[in-house]
UniProtKB/TrEMBL annotation:
It comes from Nocardioides exalbidus. It comes from the Bacteria. The lineage of its organism: Bacteria, Bacillati, Actinomycetota, Actinomycetes, Propionibacteriales. Residues 476-523 have a biased composition (Low complexity). GO terms for molecular function: metallopeptidase activity. Residues 475-526 are annotated as: Disordered. This is Metallo-peptidase family M12. Residues 1-33 form the signal peptide. Gene3D superfamilies: 2.60.120.380, Collagenase (Catalytic Domain) (3.40.390.10).
Amino acid sequence: MSVRSHRRPALVVRAFVAAALGLSGFAATTALAPQAGAASVTDPLCLSAPLSAPVRLDEAIATGVSAALIRSINNLTLGQLDHFSEDGTTWVDRCGRLYVADEAAPASVQRDVPAQLAASQVPADVFDLSSRPQSSRTIYLDFDGATYSGTKWKNGAEIVSAPFSIDDDASTFNEEERAQIFLAWKVVSEDYAPFDVNVTTKKPDTSALTRTSTADTTYGMPIVITPTNSVGESCACGGLSYVGMFGTVNGTGYQPSWAFTYGAGTNGYNIGQVVSHEIGHSFGLSHEGTSDTNYYGGAKGWAPIMGTSYNARVSQWSLGEYSGANNTEDDLAIIAKNAPLLADDHGDDKVSATRITVGSTTSGVIGTRTDVDAFTFTASGTTTLSVSGPAGLSNTDVQVSIQNAVGLTIAAANPVGDEASDETMSATWTADLPSTPSTYTAVIDGVGYGNPQEAGRYSDYGSIGNYRVDLYAGRPTTTTETTDIPTTTTETGTSTHGGTQTSSTQSSSSQSSSSTTTAPRSTQDISFLTRALPRAKVGKKYRAEIRFDGPVTDASVDYRLPAGLRWRVLTDRIVITGKVKARATSTFNVDLDGADSSTRMKFRLVAR
């Protein structure tokens, strides 16, 4: 799924003119051709003249294979076939079925160090994970090795795929490997959260993946995550998938899809991006690119799932609204043909709202760009309502609006920032409400940010997915997330109900390190202005500042920094300088004390 400049001329019109040439078989192939497509008497092309070997789609059409027949076999519109034919990663198997051989990730992505998760965050059994176990539709993430034979892959020969592994021991899964499996599952679960489909690592019965008739609503698609490409050794791929086979009746011969970690890396987050992308092809989706590349990589922490979304903080289904987009297909509508969108889980106004109480946590799903969820609650005094998606991987850019008892909007929270982060994707409202209890309604919406034609900006189309609502008395507490977080400032305003409300705004670009998300404070409190530290490079000079605000009388670092670095306190900041001597990761607290208050924040400094 790497970004590569690859533009081929549209060949569809010429192909229709050449259709009179018939279904000429040929042996054209290349060294990169993965072996797919055993002949089948059920495929129209194979009844007449099967191809000698798989070939790129544009080459097949240029050589005289009927574009009309390929359209018919693959249930494509003329526009879809045109788009696929311009994409050099699209192949035709011997019987006219399309599949995609996605490019390997850039070498820098392949070398990415797997994300670190605390053991307490990882379930004891990562092979028993299910996002929606009650669903009759399944996306099966197969990490523990698989054997297939008699499929359309590799001319029906037996394919033995090794288990996912980071170390040299493929017989067991160590703590790091289990953590990456869990993280990959979380990513895919979030991407498919709006749909009635179960993302699972638990091996399902064969019947759960097989559709026997159009009336059969129990079916799915497995995807094998394996170190090397056992399908076609000469294919330098990051993944393989047949196009549009999810939910196809009697389509198990076109299973599974594949994700190869030698081409995608072993970082669980990026594995999840590849899996969502390949399963997207199985639903019938094509690539999101531009006139210069098959894969659009996005900008400023945002990227389309069907482009290349490695390491993007926000990956979303796309309508091709970014500048220069070459594909405006409706991703959500195409997926929903075989994995319907979920029914609305919460009402959208105060009449149909879900009742919540102070001290409670409630979950929900924003399913479409028009979906809003409403929650009513009774509160008095200092109250905080926080809405956020899964840390580090949520797709929903949350906005929360607060209405009073008569339905007037009295406050709203929707943090923004130049680069996507956990803070820009969540929203927190804090207010000093009157002492007499009153009823309020919180309306949650998935919103866009800016003009999608500008780099890194997006509409509300793909701003969908899981979220949780936390309602509690008092002001926000400090929580730590291991994600890319931008610098944050706070602002305080007065709401129309007579209390004081605080909401957060964002500024600056993201920095790659661990950070602490501190909820907004009033301008009189001690607070941190710096939220994250840039990485240090071994042998290079380093300087970073931890800036703070408020009446600070003492500031200190409570743990040793990486060897070669030192810290000192200036008037409104702690300055870290020096030259790092060796690779290291240091996690430490910074304490700020004043005459009447104090605060602490945890930082993580990575030296590589």
